[in-house]
Amino acid sequence: MKRPLLILFAVLAAAGLGYAPQLIFGAPIESTMGFVQKIFYFHVPSAFMTFLGAFVSAGGAIWYLVNGSPRGDRLAVAGAELTVLFGICVLVTGPLWARKAWGTYWRWDVRLTTSLLLWMIFLAYLFARRYGGAGAKRLSAGLAVFGAADVPLIYISVSVWRSIHPKTSVVSTLGPGMRGPFWFCVASFLFLFLVLLELRLALERSRARLDELHLAVEDHLDANS
Amino acid sequence: MGVLASTMLLVSKDVRVELRAKELIYATIFFGAVVLLVFAFSFLGGERPPVDAVAGILWVTITLSGTVGVSRAFEREREGDTLRALLLSPAPRTAIYLSKLVSVTLLMVLVETTATLLLSLLFQVTLPHVGMLVGLLGLGTIGFASVSALFGASLGRARSRDVLLPLLTYPVVMPILIAGTRGTVGLWHGDAEGLVAAAYWLRFLLVFDAIFVSLGLWIFEPMMRSDG
């Protein structure tokens, strides 16, 4: 990503997230759930970004496994970290809402379980990456691919139990006063996601460059000794 | 040599090595029995646990002892550096993966047989619809083996591989545990609704196995490649 574009996205994300509370406060109060429904404006965009991160990570992992491309590997690790990060937002805001709406922090509902397991798989990715030894990159890439393939299966397996989570159709049937703030929040989160992704990719690029320089210096010293 | 012939050869090698040492068989079966006993002690004196809990106990026991077996099997490969030798040999990569999958499955079938019998003894569960139970256990095992054999093999050089193996495997095989447990509960309830549920989970496991074995076959080769 070009630097001016990155700065533009960063400004858009900061302005969007700064202005979002104003919009959310101004949106109409939902008739049955009342004020707690407002957490939805941050909860659902976070969930979108969690899945986007997993998608980016699995895509990068496949690219890396097939071509051995270091860019694919960088994309995989950046995507996995963002999945874990936005997953934390989802898993914190969800139970807060559920306590008010259902009277309990957690239920083994399909969307909750699927999100939790997806989050755990990508947490395991980070573990594998950190402690996986010499083959850590390939090992974690394999995990990302398996994890992404797993999500629909987890979803189906849990959905056989009765679901109490609001349906995804909630998003398409939002009232006119809510639709604007909601998509505004999604856009702000998307800009935040892109900025974080690019920063993380830049960090990995610098790390790779540093490793190269380190090796070059060692070679140079070896040649001179 | 074709993939199938190489696979058969490698499986017979694994079986022969294990029959001589008998280390894995005894260790995993004994481990499974100990886990079951711990569960049995926790219910001591109280009411008999419901079949839902017993089904969970069975699948937890299988998963834990399976992990111990896989972990030890690859530890042995690492000690003798035999996995590297295998990878250097002209055997097709798919055959190496398939042979590991079959060997792990064979070992786990032994553990499951003893664990299920011991479970029915300790928790006084009758075992009706044996055919479907065998189907659930067999398909669940193949799914578990398809994931754990892959990660077990590629964890070969990692420092904390014993901790990492369950950490990587369990979240991925969670659908198997759900399907296996719910299917077994359905079987043990024994009514028409339960049997329909069991048949559903059996089909679910079949789909899971098909996806994960194909994915494993495809991904094993690039995963075992060395970065140098």
Shape of chain A: globular
Integer average pLDDT of chain B: 89
Range of strand content of chain A: under 5%
Strand content of chain B: under 5%
Q: Overall 3D geometry of chain B? A: globular
Radius of gyration of chain B: 18 Å
Which H/E pattern describes the elements of chain B?
Answer: HHHHHHHH
Q: Helix content range of the residues of chain A, please?
A: over 70%
Biggest β-sheet description of chain B: none
The termini of chain B sit apart by: 28 Å
Give a short account of the largest sheet of chain A. none
Report the oligomer: heterodimer
The most extensive interface, with participating residues per chain, is: A-B, 32 and 36 residues
Rg over C-alpha atoms of chain A, rounded to the nearest angstrom: 21 Å
Low-confidence stretches of chain B: none
| Number of DSSP helical runs of chain A | 7
The sequence of SSEs of chain A as H and E is: HHHHHHH
Count of domain modules of chain B: 1
What ranges of chain A have pLDDT less than 50 throughout 5 or more consecutive residues? none
Structural class of chain A: mainly alpha
Tell me the count of domains of chain A.
Answer: 1
List key phrases describing it:
heterodimer, A: mainly alpha, 81% helix, B: 228 residues, mainly alpha
Textual characterization of the structure:
The complex is a heterodimer of chains A (225) and B (228). Chain A is mainly alpha-helical and 225 residues long. Chain A has one domain (3-224). Chain A is 81% helix and 0% strand. In chain A, helix 2 crosses helix 5 and helix 2 runs parallel beside helix 7 (176-224). The model of chain A has no long low-confidence stretch (mean pLDDT 85). Chain B is mainly α. Chain B has one domain (3-224). Chain B is globular, with a radius of gyration of 18 Å. The interface between A and B is medium-sized, with 32 and 36 residues.
